[in-house]
Amino acid sequence: MSDSGWYMRFSIRVNGTVHRVEAEPDTPLLWILRDVLGLTGTKYGCGTGDCGACTVLVGSRPRRSCQLRIARLGHASIVTIEGISGAVADGVLKAWREADLSECGYCQSGQIITAIALLTTNVQPSDREIDQAFDGSICRCTAYLGIRRAVHHAANIIKR
Hints:
The chain has helices at 29-36, 87-99, 108-121, 127-133, 144-159, and strands at 8-14, 17-23, 55-58, 61-64, 77-79. By secondary structure, it is an alpha+beta fold.
């Protein structure tokens, strides 16, 4: 955050808890999560919204937190990797562990959030739908095929 001195107070709901924060209106959500709230599971990748490492759920949609300004969030409910829960999240986490997808792990929180968003709205996605959902989610370890297999595996876990 810069020191322009033009701070405002905001209330944001993150992982089910309302937090009151002071920040400049154009402060990216990513920095609020990491620097103010201490939720460091959401990663800084490119800062331009092109890599997906900073993906969080806003409502039920995956969004790049580096591109979301705190003043524009309104009453949105935000879920970070630290706050995921439920049958879909449990299935995705189990599939990720069983597929041993961690590699370097840097992109994984964004990938997992993206998988949860996809499987919440589409319980049996095709390869094409998975590729579309993950378009722009960069994995520097190039685990893309493993991620696709893990999404299919998670879908099967969730159906049981």
